[in-house]
DNA sequence: CACCCCCCCTTGATCGATCCAACTGCGTGA
DNA sequence: TCACGCAGTTGGATCGATCAAGGGGGGGTG
C-alpha cells in the first residue's frame, strides 16, 4: 500500500488534481502519467522518477469513478451484512468482517456493505450487480435452500461463498469453509484426553447441515474411542434456555461428565444449568462450546471453545476472488480449513 | 427502495444495458430516459410510463461509475472498521454497523469499510478522499488526541463523528453521541430503587473522558440521594481480571451491595469474584454493566446493562450526513441520545 | 546508406451517465 | 398573422481515467 503523506499544513484543493494536471506539470502526456501509476515498467527510470515526484507534489490520486468507468471494474467487494442475533453468543461476523477488510485491502479491494432484506434475499445483490457497483460478492449465509448462490452462479457473477453448498451437489461455485466436524473432533478428543468417557452432545435441529456436520465430529470421535453415544445427544433450537433444558435432561438421564455443544450459546445454557445445580464447570462437569465468541472469552472461568480460523478464511476468500477476477483458473472448487481449540477453565 | 424483479430464467447480459439502449428501444432520447430516472416530473405521464416499462423489460440500472464521474459523487460513506478487542465484551460495533448500513441504504447510500492502520490513522481517509471514492465519512473513534476529526475538518471533508470532541472545545464538526452519564444515572437509580445504598463504581482510568463521563452519572445520582461515594470507586484497565481484582478489594474494604461498571467487561470481572466467593449475583450482590453486549444477554442469570441506542445513533448520523451532503444548513452541532437500561437477573 | 525494429512516449477515441443550450410543436394574446 | 412562452425533447459536450493506435529517435543490420 502506498502511504501518502499528509502534512498538517496541506489542504485538499477544491477541485482535485487530475491526471492531466500532473501531465502538464511534469511535461509529459496523460498516458505517461497513467503508465507511471499502472505500468511503471514502461517508463524510463528518470521519467518515472520525475512523474512520481510531481504526483507526490500535487498529492494526486486517480479518480476512482473515472477509472471504474473505463476499466469496468470498481475494486469493491460486496458483502451482505447480517448482524449477530440478539440473545445469542454468535458474533463471528465482527471478526470475519475485520479479517475480510484487511485481506481485501492488501489485494487492492474495499468492502462494500449492503443490508439484508429477508423478504427479498436477492434484491441487494441484483441492484449492485446491475449497476456494476461491485466486482464480486462474498456470500456468507449458505444455509440450506438459500437461493443466492444459485442465482449468482446463473448470473455469472463472480463470488466466493463462505460455507459449503450443502444442498446442491452440482453447485459449481467456489467456496471456503471451516471443517466443523474437525472442530468437534478436537473438542471431543480433548475431553477424552482429560479422562472423560461420558460426553454428551447438544446441537441444532436436524435440518441444519452445519449442525449435523459438527455432530458428526463428536459421533466419530466417540465411536473411534469405543465410547457410547446413544442417549447422550440432544438437538434443540440455538437459544440459551434450550441449551439449559437439554443439559438438565441429559444430566438426569445419562449422567454425562462433559458436554460438547454446537455453539457458545448452547454452552451458556449448559453453564446456566450447572450454576443452578451448584456444579462447578471445569471441576465437576466439563463444557466445550463452538465459535470462541467474546462470551467464551470473558466468562468467569473461561469457556473452552472451538475457534474458527476466520482470518485464514478471509485470506483464502480474497485470494480466490482475486484469481476469479483476473480470470486465472481457480485450481480448487472448495477449501476446507481446520479450526483450533481455545482451551479455558470450563474443561 | 425500488424492488427489481429477478425471475429465475433471466440472466444478466454480458454487456449490461445502457441508457442509450433503453432510449432506442423506447423511441426517445437518452436525456428523456435520464429524466425518467432522476426527474420523472419533467415527463408527460404516458412517456414516463413507456420509458419505465422499457427500463423494466431490459432490466436497466444506471452505471454507477458513469454517474459518479459526472456528478462527482459516489453515494458511498466510508467507515473505518475496528473490530472488537479479543478478551473483552465490547462488541457494539456489530450492532452499530448494521444500523448504519440500514439507515444509509434508506437514504440511498452504501457503506464502504476500510481497515484501521494504527501507524497511520489518517492514511485510509486520505486515500479515499483524494480518489473521491466516498462522499463522506463516519468517524467512530473520537478518543482523546485522535487527529482524525481535526484533519478531516481541515480538509473540508464531510463527516459526522460518533462521539463528542472531548479534547477540543473549538472543534467545529458535527457529532452524535450517547449520554453515558445518563446511562449510569439510570443504572444507579435503578439500584437505589431496589433498596441498595452502598453502591460501588468500577470504571476506567482517568485519562478516558468517556469513562469519566460515565462515572459522573454514578457520582451525581449517589450524591443526589445522599449516599456515600468515597472509598466506593475504583479506576482500572478495561479487562476482566482488573474488574475482578477491583471488586475483591472493594468488597473487602467498603462492603458494597451493588456494583455499577463502566463496561460489561468489568462487570464480568465482578461476577467472577462473586462466583469465587460463592455470592449469587442479583440475590447477594447486584451488578450492572454497560453496553448490553451479547455477554450480558447470555450470561446465566443475565447481566443488567446500559444499552446504547445505536439504531438511533445511526439514523441520526445518516440524517445529518444527508443534510451536509445536500448543503442544507445543519441546525445543531451535536446530538446527545439517551441510553436505556436492560434489566436482567444480576440486579 | 537504406531499412527495420524497438523503446519510449504522444494523440485521439472511448467508457456511460448527466449537464447544457437549443430546438420543436402547440397554444395564447396582441 | 406573428411573436412569445412553455412543456417536452434533442444532440453535443463533459467528467477523468484507460485503450488502441501512431510517431519519432537511436541503434543495429544488410
Automatic annotation (TrEMBL), chains A, B:
InterPro entries: HTH_LacI, LacI/GalR-like_sensor, Lambda_DNA-bd_dom_sf, Peripla_BP_I. GO terms for molecular function: DNA-binding transcription factor activity; transcription cis-regulatory region binding. Residues 17-71 form the HTH lacI-type domain. The keyword DNA-binding applies. Keywords: DNA-binding, Transcription, Transcription regulation. PROSITE patterns: HTH_LACI_1 (PS00356), HTH_LACI_2 (PS50932). Pfam families: LacI, Peripla_BP_3. The keyword Transcription applies. SMART domains: HTH_LACI. SUPFAM superfamilies: lambda repressor-like DNA-binding domains (SSF47413), Periplasmic binding protein-like I (SSF53822). Gene3D superfamilies: 3.40.50.2300, lambda repressor-like DNA-binding domains. This is LacI family transcriptional regulator.
Amino acid at each position: 500500500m502506498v502511504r501518502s503523506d499528509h502534512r498538517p499544513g496541506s489542504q485538499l484543493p477544491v477541485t482535485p488534481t487530475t491526471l492531466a494536471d500532473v501531465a502538464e506539470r511534469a511535461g509529459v502526456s496523460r498516458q505517461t502519467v497513467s503508465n507511471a501509476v499502472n505500468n511503471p515498467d514502461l517508463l524510463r527510470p528518470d521519467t518515472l522518477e520525475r512523474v512520481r515526484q510531481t504526483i507526490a507534489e500535487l498529492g494526486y490520486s486517480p479518480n476512482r469513478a473515472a477509472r471504474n468507468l473505463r476499466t469496468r471494474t470498481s475494486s469493491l467487494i460486496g458483502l451482505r451484512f447480517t448482524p449477530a442475533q440478539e440473545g445469542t453468543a454468535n458474533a463471528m461476523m465482527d471478526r470475519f468482517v475485520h479479517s475480510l477488510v484487511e485481506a481485501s485491502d492488501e489485494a487492492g479491494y474495499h468492502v462494500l456493505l449492503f443490508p439484508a432484506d429477508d423478504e427479498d434475499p436477492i434484491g441487494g445483490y441484483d441492484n449492485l450487480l446491475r449497476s456494476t457497483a461491485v466486482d464480486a460478492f462474498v456470500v456468507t449465509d449458505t444455509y440450506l435452500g438459500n437461493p443466492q448462490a444459485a442465482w449468482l452462479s446463473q448470473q455469472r457473477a463472480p463470488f466466493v461463498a463462505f460455507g459449503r453448498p450443502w444442498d446442491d451437489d452440482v453447485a459449481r461455485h467456489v467456496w471456503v469453509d471451516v471443517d466443523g466436524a474437525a472442530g468437534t473432533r478436537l473438542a471431543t478428543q480433548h475431553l477424552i484426553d482429560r479422562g472423560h468417557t461420558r460426553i454428551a452432545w447438544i446441537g441444532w435441529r436436524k435440518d441444519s447441515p452445519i449442525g449435523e456436520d459438527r455432530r458428526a465430529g463428536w459421533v466419530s470421535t466417540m465411536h473411534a474411542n469405543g465410547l457410547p453415544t446413544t442417549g447422550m445427544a440432544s438437538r434443540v433450537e440455538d437459544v440459551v434456555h434450550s441449551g439449559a433444558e437439554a443439559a438438565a435432561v441429559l444430566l438426569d438421564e445419562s449422567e454425562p461428565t462433559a458436554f460438547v455443544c454446537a455453539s457458545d450459546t448452547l454452552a451458556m445454557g449448559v453453564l446456566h444449568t450447572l450454576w443452578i445445580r451448584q456444579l462447578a464447570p471445569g471441576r465437576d462437569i466439563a463444557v466445550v462450546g463452538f465459535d470462541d465468541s467474546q462470551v467464551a472469552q470473558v466468562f468467569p472461568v473461561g469457556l473452552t471453545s472451538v475457534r474458527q480460523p476466520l482470518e485464514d478464511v478471509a485470506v483464502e476468500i480474497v485470494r480466490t476472488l482475486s484469481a476469479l477476477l483476473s480470470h486465472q483458473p481457480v485450481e480448487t472448487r472448495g477449501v476446507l480449513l481446520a479450526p483450533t481449540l481455545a482451551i479455558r477453565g470450563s474443561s
